[in-house]
Write a structure and sequence with these properties.
It is a single chain. This protein has 3 helices and 6 strands. It has 93 residues and is of the alpha+beta class. It has one domain. Strands 1-2-6-5 form a 4-stranded antiparallel beta sheet.
């Protein structure tokens, strides 16, 4: 399986969910060596039967929105809530 770097994964996520507000994890931590993606927004736009909804990407039990989690896993990435409104994603290889 191809290994996707941070910027490639951001591009893939933006293709699927154009309105995601993403950055490199290093922007969040201030350490340029930190790998991963920082989800700068706590919601994701979802369209169901033509209607637009904003779903939280981190649920009440600190679980990641299931479609986002499945998408990340399909590219061998994983997510981890940093806190109630901050999500990080990392390569799982």
């Amino acid at each position: 399986m191809k290994k996707y770097n941070d910027k490639e994964m951001i591009n893939l996520l933006k293709e699927k969910w154009a309105k995601l507000n993403l950055g490199l994890r290093s922007e969040f931590t201030g350490n340029e060596e930190d790998k991963g993606i920082w989800f700068k927004s706590s919601t994701i736009e979802v369209i169901i039967e033509g209607e637009t909804f904003w779903m939280p990407i981190v649920g009440d039990m600190y679980e990641t929105y299931h479609q986002l989690e499945q998408f990340l896993e399909s590219y061998n990435w994983m997510s981890e809530p940093y806190d109630a409104e901050t999500l990080m994603a990392y390569p799982n290889y």
